[in-house]
Each structure stands twice: as structure tokens, then as C-alpha cells.
Give the backbone structure.
Amino acid sequence: GRFNEWLRRLPDTWDALLGHTYDSLIHKLLREGKLADAFDCFDEMKREGDKPTASTYEMLIRGCTLAMARVRPDAPQPDRFSAFLYGRVLALWQEMRDRRVRVDRYTYVELLRAFGKAGQVDAAFLIFEKMLALPQFLPDERAFDSMYELCSHAGAYSRALEVFREQAELRKSLFAPRLTPVAFTHLMLASVEGGLMHKLPPVLREMERFRCLPSKGTCGKLLGA
């Protein structure tokens, strides 16, 4: 069937390393940008009785996210194709729950990225708050960076600073998710674009402590604010 057809596309080294598995095929197809083929492979996987894992769903969610166009403050709604892909993400997430697939932190991070690209601020915060409430799913720097990026691009500027306060609080624990240049960039942009310069000093203090300098473009926006 189509499984054998897909196998013939794989390089010999890939076969030697990973063997002939549906997950390896899906990963390969997604790397090649063949999202529709990856979903066909996923459907055949289920028909053949192979059980998808959290990693399978995470790969497909990431594939949808990468193919989506990001919303902007001046265009807050996703285009038609991105809205379709966002619907696929929601369907995958619902299927995971229906099949009682055991999720992990990576699942939530991929959902945050997808919700962020689609501009679904409230949906992203529901996932984020769930992560904060469950010790095994506490958000790491990838989750926080995704939230900062979401808030910045969706125009939810004040909520970016809410996320910063949550990260600052969590940094007092042993978990202590690190602040990254991505976080600082989006926090500064949110402060400028949202007219929240008076709330920027704690961010600047953390930047100084981490010896992290803003980019030239960000400096220009700060000086013009």
C-alpha cells in the first residue's frame, strides 16, 4: 500500500537509524514540508492498528503550526488556510483526549505555539494556567517564550507583563525557568507598543542581571517611545 510507497522515499541512512516506523515516516514527511502526506500516513497508521503516541500528535501539531501564517495586531484574525490548520490542531488535541493519550510538557508547548500563531490568546492562557497548576507540566523557557511571542504579535501587551510576573515568581523555585533574549525582546516591545513603559524597570533589571542587551531595532523603538 501507500506505506511501502513512502518507504521507498526514505534514504538508506534514515532506514538504518530509525527503521520502518510510521513515526519516522511522519517526521520525514513533515521535514520535507509534505503536511498532507504526513496526515495520510497518520490515518493509515491508525487503520493498521498502530497506536499514535504523544510524540506523533506533537509532530503533526508542530507541522500545522509551521505552515500557519502568524496573526498581527493589524490583522488579528488568521487567514482561511491558517484557520483550517488551526482547526486541525484542535482536532488532534481532542483526539488525544478521546484516546487518553498521555500528554507531556512538550504537548502543551506545541499547543501554545499553535494557539499563538492563530492569535488565540484566551485559549493559550487556559493551557498556560493549567501548566502552572500542575507540577509535572510547569512551563519552561520554551513555554514562556511562546507566551511572550503570542502576546506581542496579538497585541495583548499587558498580558505579556502578567506572564513576566508569573515567570519571576516561578524563578524563586528550584524549577527556575530561565529568561531568554526572546523573552526580553518581546517584553520590551510589549511595553513600548502597549504604552506600558512605566512597568518596564523590573524587566530592565533582569536584563542587566543576565547581561542581555536589546537589539538595535528594539533600542530605536525604546528611544522613540
Summary: The mean pLDDT is 86. The chain is about 70% helix and 0% strand. The two ends are 61 Å apart (CA to CA).
